[in-house]
Design a protein that fits this description.
heterodimer, A: mainly beta, four-stranded antiparallel sheet, 12 strands, globular, B: mainly beta, seven-stranded mixed sheet, 50% strand
């Protein structure tokens, strides 16, 4: 079975500071990992994904994520946060042994203060 | 523009009154699915479809039905809505393939009174 954990309900960071949103996963096969962002009253927007290859993945809006197989983690990062980054962030995993279903974490609310 | 379109965006209904939420995608995706989003629970999959006439239950299918008569459309049907189905619903589509990202609709906020 596949699962995702986002251990923080909320992350607060000052504008200009680096941000990290944490995600750990559990799969039986190989993981396909995704990050999505949700702004108020909007659907989920795809940010980035890890399939294979380089452990550091770059995505939209300056975000990147680091895949760590030994720690089964896929943390989302950004070197310098913007107030406009404030949103709800979801990590998701698809297990290579489990078809196409995406399993989502519970989400982390990011608040960037001026 | 590539998109997933859901309608309606907002819906208030009464217990027991059948309703349908429509979903359409213009990307020729084989895989489509429905999720519900509840505070503190994240997104949970209700039903999914691998292709036309192929549907299957997700994690929380009770009280819902779906159909996939055409590749682009995947409506969600609540035959007899109950208050515990008050939620935010998302339709998503993707190409088949483990590493393909899903595209989401704007969401339908359903309130059952």
């Amino acid at each position: 079975a596949q699962s995702v954990a986002q251990p923080e309900d909320q992350v607060n960071v000052a504008e200009g500071n680096p941000l990290t949103v944490k995600c750990t996963y559990s799969v039986s096969g190989n993981p396909y990992l995704f990050w999505y962002v949700q702004y108020p009253n909007r659907g989920l927007q795809f940010l980035l994904k890890y399939i294979t290859g380089d452990n550091l993945v770059k995505g939209s809006y300056g975000f990147e994520a680091e895949f760590n197989k030994s720690q089964t983690s896929f943390h989302l990062k950004k070197p310098s946060a913007l107030v406009s980054d404030s949103a709800l962030y979801f990590c998701a995993v698809r297990d290579s042994n489990s078809g196409y279903a995406l399993n989502f974490g519970k989400g982390t609310s990011l608040l960037v203060t001026p | 523009e590539a998109q997933v379109t859901q309608n309606p965006r907002y819906l208030i209904t009464v217990t027991g009154k059948k309703l349908t939420v429509t979903c359409s995608q213009n990307m020729n995706h084989e895989y489509m699915s429905w999720y519900r989003q509840d505070p503190g629970l994240g997104l949970r999959q209700i039903y999914y479809s691998m292709n036309v006439e192929v549907t299957d239950k997700g994690d929380v299918p009770e009280g819902y039905k779906v159909s996939r008569k055409e590749k682009r459309n995947f409506p969600l049907i609540l035959e007899s809505p109950s208050p515990n189905q008050t939620s935010l619903y998302f339709c998503a589509s993707s190409l088949q393939g483990g590493g393909t990202e899903a595209f989401f609709g704007q969401g339908t906020r359903l309130t059952v009174v």
